[in-house]
Amino acid sequence: MPYTNNINHQSINKSIIHANGKLLLSAEYFVLDGALALALPTSRGQIFTFETLPDSNFIFWKSYDEKHQLWFDAVFSLEKLEATQTSNVEISNRLTQIFQAVRALNISFFEKNKGAKVESKLTFPRNWGLGTSSTLIYAIAKWANINPFILLEKTFGGSGYDLACAGAERSIFYQIKNKKPTWEECDFSPSFADQLYFIFLGKKQNSREGIQHYRKIEKQSFLLEKISNLSEQMLASASLSDFEKIINAHEDIISKTLHLQKIKDLHFKDYWGSVKSLGAWGGDFVLATSNRTEAETKSYFNKKGFEVFFRYENLIL
Predict the structure, then answer these.
(1) 198 and 168 in one domain?
(2) Are residue 199 and residue 177 in the same domain, yes or no?
(3) Is the pTM higher than 0.90?
(4) How many whole angstroms separate alpha carbon 54 and alpha carbon 213?
(5) Same domain, 121 and 170
(6) Is 210 found in the same domain as 163?
(7) CATH code at 285?
(8) Structural domain includes residue 157
(9) Segments of the chain assigned E as strands
(10) Does residue 254 contact residue 265 with C-beta atoms inside 8 Å?
(11) Which residues are CB-neighbours of 145 under 8 A, at least 6 positions away?
(12) How many C-alpha atoms does 271 have within 13 Å on its Cβ side?
């Protein structure tokens, strides 16, 4: 499926781009080597406004969090694409890297006397790990009319499933074939969706560190097919009990391959349902299944110290 331009409004001088957040339900890590992954775009994401400033040689950038508080502010020169003013050097350096990659991919984009005013607005807290970086890459690529996957490769790296989620309208199957991203939208709307919950563990995980750990481990090729089959089985699950068996089997494979302890064994040994890591293990969100009431389920996780708790329908598109 080709990537699409997810632009809500565009004029000669202004474009507004909405990018979805993401959660990876299956094939974490293995997606890098071609396993089929089931991924879920979230209703929370990031909104970017790009406005052309004629006769200006600067890019004025402001980023706001979900509470409408300014958390990053910088000015970049068009000539060198470096910050002349910034509230955070590390972030402005990262943006300079992205801008320079954009210029290499579209030499006519950052032209002299065509400055810009950019505002980004998150609809989720930055530490949730729902895609602050992927929504940024997706939106800048759309603004500059370049392939977001090539921009990702030249900047952050990664599988690219999060970029596919950024412009998707529902769940997707994502797979790297012959080193190229492919995906198609699918209908993951299980009859037991009201028994699925998402819990934030309170620690934003660095996916690049997880990828480096995965790369160092010797893996058996048959596991790619096994993970891909589990992804397909998740989509086809007819009951909560079937779904739990599938995600438990998936957790076992990842745990044994990466020599990592399962999240349920770490924090939730006494929990009655299944708990699955989503994306990089050790932080961010987990998926929990429950055959008990929402109130009882939420109370369990709250007592464990985890306050951010979502029903499936309240987080997923």
Answers:
(1) no
(2) no
(3) yes
(4) 47
(5) yes
(6) no
(7) 3.30.70.890
(8) yes
(9) 7-10, 14-24, 37-54, 58-64, 70-77, 83-86, 114-122, 172-177, 180-185, 196-200, 275-277, 285-289, 309-311
(10) no
(11) 106, 109
(12) 25
Condensed to tens digits (0 to 9), the pLDDT of residues 83-141 reads: 999 999 999 999 999 999 999 999 999 999 999 999 999 999 999 999 999 999 999 99
- Count the domains in the chain: 2
How many Å apart are CA 59 and CA 115, to the nearest integer?
5
Domain boundary (185, 217, 249) is at: 185
What span, in angstroms and rounded, lies between the C-alpha atoms of 37 and 16?
Answer: 29
CA triplet 86, 47, 1: central angle to 5 degrees? 120
Residue 191 in tokens: 């009859």
Range of the structural domain that residue 78 is part of: 7-185
Tell me, yes or no, whether 1 lies in a domain: no
pLDDT (tens, 9 = 90+) of the chain, 317 residues, equals 433 344 444 445 899 999 999 999 999 999 999 999 999 999 999 999 999 999 999 999 999 999 999 999 999 999 999 999 999 999 999 999 999 999 999 999 999 999 999 999 999 999 999 999 999 999 999 999 999 999 999 999 999 999 999 999 999 999 999 999 999 999 999 999 999 999 999 875 566 676 777 777 777 789 999 999 999 999 999 999 999 999 999 999 999 998 889 999 999 999 999 999 998 887 689 999 999 999 999 999 999 999 999 999 999 99
180 and 310: one domain?
Answer: no
pLDDT in tens, 151-185: 999 999 999 999 999 999 999 999 999 999 999 99
| CA dihedral sign, ordered 215, 221, 225, 227 | negative
